[in-house]
Amino acid sequence: MAAPSDEELFKVIDAEAANPREGTDSRLIYRALSERRDRLGAASDLPQDKALSEKILAEARSRSAQISASRKVSGPVAVVTPGIPWWLWLGWIVAIAAVVAAFRYLV
Asked: What is the DSSP string of 76-104?
């Protein structure tokens, strides 16, 4: 697939931008990234050191084990909630009795 030209990309940016300021910012970011493309791939500059890679991997595994161990220690705690207060029970009983009495009175 052929890479789109800058003008095509700028047309898409202008169409997708919420306002002209956002379009200008997007154009500036695109230009900066395309000009500095060679400096963005800094990962290729890192040395291929097996010992360092193994050390980093071992540290990551030990840290992961520490985190998972700390999560196991603090397990779920049962939450004790207070019961329904007596006055609420009484209110429901009175309300139901009032509905029954009103129904009998009206019928």
From this structure: --PPP-----HHHHHHHHHHHHHHHHHHH
Question: How does pLDDT run across 40-78, given as a tens digit for each residue?
Answer: 666 656 667 888 888 888 899 888 888 877 776 556 677
Domain boundaries, the chain: 1-41
**Mean pLDDT, residues 18-39:** 85
Is the separation of the CB atoms in 30 and 11 below 8 Å? no
Query: Tokens for 52?
Result: 């360092």
Q: What is the dihedral of CA 48, 51, 55, 58, to 10 degrees?
A: 100
Determine the residue type at 80: V
CB 17 within 8 A of CB 23: yes
